[in-house]
Amino acid sequence: MIIDTRSVPCIGVRGPRGYDGAKKLVGRKRVALVDAEGHVLALAVVPANVQDRDTLPALDDGKEPWPSLRLAIRDGAFTAGRCQEWCNLHGMRHRVVEKGPDQRGFVALERRWLVERTLGWLSHGGGLLRERAGRLDVATGRLACVASLMAANALNNPA
Fold first, then answer.
1. What pLDDT shows up at residue 70?
2. What share of residues in the chain are helix, strand, coil (percent, to 5)?
3. Domain range spanning residue 71?
4. Residue 133 covered by a domain
5. Burial (0-12, 13-18, 19+ Cβ within 10 Å), 104
6. How far does CA 33 lie from the centroid of its chain?
7. Spacing of C-alpha 141 from chain mean position
8. Per the UniProt record, which residue ranges are transmembrane (predicted)?
């Protein structure tokens, strides 16, 4: 399982939103968990001012959804104790994938491209480049609909 987030701007939205200082935008943060093939396992939408390490509880819905997954790959933003506690709660080992100290600029990190690709497909393919829903549950539902359409399309058109 690979974990990552992406911040998107809110346009004309009155609901919860926040300022992401790293991206310098007012909006929301989309949290995605994907499997080793890039299929969406869980999605959540939170205000953009929420730290990455604090977004994982938003993915829980009270049941054990991933009994067969044993490894969580995450980037440096998920290194705090709360993420480790979440992985331990779900019985997963976790590994942080970061750039080396001598690497500069863009570097494709191991397996992280899968979640980046999936977040890109959700944004571009579903017409969700900007957040327009007023409520977080509606925004999450729209993402889930696009993810379902992507999965159905993948089943219908195998590569």
1. 79
2. 35, 25, 40
3. 2-152
4. yes
5. exposed
6. 6
7. 14
8. none
The set of long-range contacts for 82-88, using a CB threshold of 8 Å and a minimum separation of 24, is 82/53, 82/54, 82/56, 83/53, 83/56, 86/56, 86/57
- CATH number at 8 reads 3.30.420.10
Nearest to 25 by CA among 39, 35, 11, 38: 11
The average confidence (pLDDT) of the chain is 80
Q: Is 106 left (phi over 0), alpha (psi -120 to 50) or beta?
A: beta
DSSP at 127: T
Q: Determine, yes or no, domain membership for 12.
A: yes
48-92 per-position pLDDT tens digit: 898 888 888 887 765 566 677 778 787 777 776 777 888 888 888
Instruction: Give domain status of residue 157, yes or no.
Output: no
pLDDT at 3 over 80: yes
For residues 150 and 39, the answer to whether their CB atoms sit within 8 Å is no
86 within domain boundaries:
yes
If one counts the domains in the chain, the total is 1
